[in-house]
Design a protein that fits this description.
five-stranded parallel beta sheet, Rossmann fold, five-stranded antiparallel beta sheet, WalR-like, Response regulator, 7 helices, OB fold (Dihydrolipoamide Acetyltransferase, E2P), alpha/beta, 2 domains, phosphoprotein, DNA-binding
Length: about 240
């Protein structure tokens, strides 16, 4: 089931898009918004797996909104302007649908989204080039991920047994696409935590089960833009 949320500054466009969605099997519109700020305040707590965003909006455009959406949610852009296509795909969105939207074209976009969502739900490992070559890493063995201090393009994966493996040339956006969204969360610009490694969760900090210095446990800072999504994951 695709559970989608719509954001468009035009109420008529929202009504039309909802009408199309209702005609497509296994698609549910959870909520619709015409204000990007309200959308961003609520999106982290909504039970949805896909966001349909208009690009051309006042105050904040769809590209800016997309950068602040939790990585667990897929994105389809809608717009009447073709010049945004390159920027849209740089954000690794599912699809870019030109207005006026036709049902057949929207069905194709949903099929792409459904395939990606299905892959993410089933996959329990990631496969990537690392410091020890092409490597398969089972996600239930991962404790923590951070940006490499040697090269920010690389990511250090710390396994639960303390082993560190370096993923080569991989950004957080793509990495989160590979990880099961129910088990991992980005907590700031440079770190991702496995939820199974969280010992204590507060407003600004996570205390993990990962051994740190001086016989204590590793503490991680929670970035402001990630706080609401984390609170939702922990039912707060």
């Amino acid at each position: 089931m695709i559970k989608c949320v719509i954001l468009d500054d035009e109420l008529l466009a929202i009504s039309y898009l909802k009408l199309l969605c209702e005609q497509i099997e296994n698609v549910e519109v959870v909520k619709a918004f015409n204000d990007p700020n309200i959308f961003l305040n609520e999106i982290g707590n909504l039970d949805c797996n896909l966001c349909i965003l208009d690009i051309e909006m006042p105050v904040m455009n769809g590209l800016q909104v997309a950068e602040r959406i939790p990585d667990s949610k897929k994105i389809i852009f809608t717009t009447a302007y073709k010049e945004y296509a390159a920027e849209a795909f740089d954000l690794h969105v599912v699809d870019y649908v030109r207005k006026p939207i036709k049902k057949e074209r929207l069905v194709l976009a949903f099929e792409k989204a459904r395939e990606l969502i299905s892959q993410k739900q089933k996959k329990d490992f990631i496969e990537w080039n690392t410091n020890i070559g092409k490597t398969v890493i089972f996600t239930d063995k991962i404790a923590y991920i951070k940006t490499s201090e040697i090269d920010s393009r690389d990511k250090d994966i710390i396994l639960k047994d303390g082993t560190t493996i370096v993923l080569k040339n991989l950004n957080f956006k793509n990495l989160l696409e590979m990880l099961p969204s129910k088990d991992f969360a980005q907590i700031n610009k440079k770190e991702i935590i496995a939820l199974s490694s969280v010992k204590v969760f507060s407003t600004n900090e996570i205390i993990t089960t990962i051994p740190g210095a001086d016989s204590s446990f590793l503490k991680l800072h929670i970035g402001e833009i990630y706080r609401k999504h984390l609170s939702g994951l922990f039912g707060k």
